[in-house]
Structure formats: C-alpha cells, structure tokens
C-alpha cells in the first residue's frame, strides 16, 4: 500500500514538474531576448533614427544653454564692474568735459552715455536751457535702450529652449512608445523583450528633454535678474549725467550773475 502511494506521489511530482517546464522555458527565452546593454549610450545606439535625432537635438540645446550662461555671465560681470567704475567718476565734483576725456576711448555703455551728452553739448554751443536738457535726456534714453538690447542679446535662446525642450522630449517619448507597440504587433507577443527597448528609449528622450529645459529656465531667470540690475546702473548713470549737466548750467548762470553785479 505504501509503495503504491509512493509511486503515485512520484508520478504527480513528475507531472507537475513537466507542467512547469513551458513557463520556465518562456522565462529563459525572455531573458535571452532582452537587450544586454541598457545604459544610456546603449539605448541611444539601439534607438530609432527619429528618436536619435531628438536626442542629438536636445544634447545640442543643452550645450547651447551652458555656453550662453558662461558667455553672458562673463559679459555681465565685466560690464557691471566697468559701469560702477564710470559712475564713481560721475559722482565726483567734476565737469562733463573731464569725464568725457576720461572715457573717450571706452566702448562701454556708460562711456557711450557720457560721449552722447558731450556731443549734444558741443552741438548746442554751450547753451544751458530747458531745450538742451530735453535733447540730452532723449539722447541718453536712446543710448540706454541700445545698450540694454545689446546686453540682453542671446538670452532669447534660453527662453526658446526652456519652452520647447519638454515637448521635443515628449515627441521622442511618443515615437518610442509607438515603436514598442509596433514591435508587439509584429511579434504577436507581449514579452518584455519586445516592449522594453522602445519604452527605455522613450524614457531616455523624456529625460534629455528635462535635462535641457530645466537649466535653461533657471539660467534665463538668473540672467534676467542680472540684466535688470545692469539696466538700473545705466539709469543711475543717465541721472548722474543729467545732474552734472544741470550743475554746470547753474554754475554758468551763477557766474554770469556775479559778473553783472
């Protein structure tokens, strides 16, 4: 009796083992079909040409973002330091001609402001009246606007990258998922080996889109604040030039009054 039960148990175990063999073989086949290299570079190499184009474009956008950040940071710091130095000269008890002589060889914004005011003074023949002050103010406003546009040049690229990079990455994501479903349809199976490569490429495109967009937005906001501070310095320089012109006009009238006495 015991031998018969033992034989039945062995048969049942054998049949159960044989029943599990197909599932085990499918798992082994899935493991064999899965791509071995799921690193970012491996996913890039196995990606579709459209997804590759998206990834390359996002990489160039990220490179452009950091290039603009480095160039504009150096430019803003250099021009801000020079503007503060020029404003220090304007704050002294000096004459417009002396300040113009000191900044004659300069091409910075404050030097352009001083030179424009001195040019208008020369064209007006030394007449200090309300019309002269208005002409000076108009000239300084034009120079200030031109220098503001010049310092802000290049920052529009950051705004464009920050606004469009997530959608470009999303396009790569959609294309990668489409390829995954196409692979499922052609293979007539839902094995992980068929789905995994396309999903991985799609997620990589999304990640690259965020990597390009997030720094672009942060750097754009930082540069915008720095440019606003620089524009405030130019406004201070214009005010100092107007005060200098007004002070010289008052001194001339004072001298004329003393001479008449």
Automatic annotation (TrEMBL):
InterPro entries: ExbB/TolQ_transport (IPR050790), MotA_ExbB_proton_chnl (IPR002898), TonB_ExbB_1 (IPR014164). The chain crosses the membrane at residues 53-71, 157-182, 202-223. Pfam families: MotA_ExbB (PF01618). It is a multi-pass membrane protein. It is found in: Cell inner membrane; Membrane. Involved in the TonB-dependent energy-dependent transport of various receptor-bound substrates. Protects ExbD from proteolytic degradation and functionally stabilizes TonB. The accessory proteins ExbB and ExbD seem to form a complex with TonB. This is Biopolymer transport protein ExbB.
């Amino acid at each position: 009796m015991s031998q018969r039960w033992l034989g039945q148990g062995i048969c049942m175990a054998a049949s159960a083992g044989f029943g599990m063999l197909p599932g085990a073989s499918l798992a082994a086949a899935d493991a064999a079909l899965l791509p071995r290299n799921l690193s970012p570079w491996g996913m890039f190499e196995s990606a579709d040409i459209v997804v590759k184009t998206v990834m390359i474009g996002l990489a160039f956008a990220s490179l452009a973002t950091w290039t603009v950040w480095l160039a504009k940071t150096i430019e803003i710091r250099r021009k801000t330091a020079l503007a503060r130095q020029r404003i220090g000269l304007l704050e002294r008890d000096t004459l417009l001609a002396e300040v113009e002589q000191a900044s004659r060889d300069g091409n910075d914004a404050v030097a352009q402001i001083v030179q424009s005011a001195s040019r208008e003074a020369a064209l007006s023949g030394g007449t200090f009246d309300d019309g002269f002050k208005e002409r000076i103010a108009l000239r300084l406003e034009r120079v200030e606007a031109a220098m503001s546009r010049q310092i802000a040049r290049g920052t529009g690229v950051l705004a464009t990258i920050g606004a469009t990079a997530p959608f470009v990455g999303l396009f790569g994501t959609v294309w990668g998922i489409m390829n995954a479903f196409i692979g499922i349809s052609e293979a007539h199976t839902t094995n992980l080996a068929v789905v995994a490569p396309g999903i991985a490429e799609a997620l990589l495109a999304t990640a690259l889109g965020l990597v390009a967009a997030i720094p672009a937005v942060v750097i754009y906001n930082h540069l915008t604040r720095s440019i606003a501070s620089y524009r405030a310095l130019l406004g201070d320089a214009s005010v100092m030039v107007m005060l200098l012109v007004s002070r010289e006009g008052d001194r001339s009238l004072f001298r004329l009054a003393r001479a008449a006495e």
